[in-house]
Amino acid sequence: MMPAARIALWVAIVGSMAVLLRSLLLEPIPFWLAVALLGCFTLLATLGWLLPGLQMYGDVVTRGPANARSVALTFDDGPHPATTRQVLAMLARGGHRATFFLVGRKVVSHPEVVREIHQAGHTIGLHSFAHERLYSYKPPHQVVADIRATQHAILDACGVRSTLFRPPIGHVSPRTAAGATRAGVTLVAWSVRGLDGLAANPDRVLRRIMRGLAPGAIVALHDAAEHDNYEPAALAALPAILTEIENRGLETVGVEQFIDPAEQ
Prior knowledge:
This protein is 46% helix and 13% strand. 40% of the residues are buried. The chain has 2 domains: 4-50, no CATH class; 60-263, TIM Barrel (Alpha-Beta Barrel), CATH 3.20.20. The two termini are 19 Å apart. The longest helix is centred in the first third of the chain and has 22 residues, at 4-25. The chain has 9 helices and 9 strands. The strands form 2 sheets. Strands 2, 3, 4, 7, 8 and 9 form a 6-stranded parallel beta sheet that branches. By secondary structure, the protein is of the alpha/beta class. It is globular.
């Protein structure tokens, strides 16, 4: 079934065309009304861009089934030789599995860490080659080229060809969605995220995760900083997160377990 946000977008597009035709064939609508309608359309389109879970511009995996009795921990912005290894050690102590969405240029710099992630049994995903802040403005053919470059870097590092893609910052524009489709990758977002970036408080990160830690949740955290200039608060919060997962009787799985094989 088509997501509600995508239906709303199509309704808005058709409505805008109807208003335009009315203005051309009959008489223009009042200026204030035109401005208001334009503002509403812009707001709707922007929300779809910033909130990937709405799936306005394409299919995005945001969670698994509610009866899964498992959660998918995901980590972005690595690999980093220090912080990623700390995360790997914490996961190993409890036998937990996770998915690491890796930045291509860091993969080239630290292939040995990528191999450690793979050898530990974790899933590897794509997080673009250079983590550009304006990535969502790239035209589809550049998105495809970027995905291919990241795939090749990971393949060279550990022999894995990943088809799981989380765009930088998670933004999914129409261009990003089109590029991902052409590249044959699956867009992955989250159902809960820790917001564990610069100056984040580990206790607040933990509370955010606890609120959304339910069967089928996809949890978004970081194993490295975007520019490797600080330690993400997730590292301090992770032991308590893992303990809570165990106390709730949940299993940790790679995010691919929540994806229909036909979609991969």
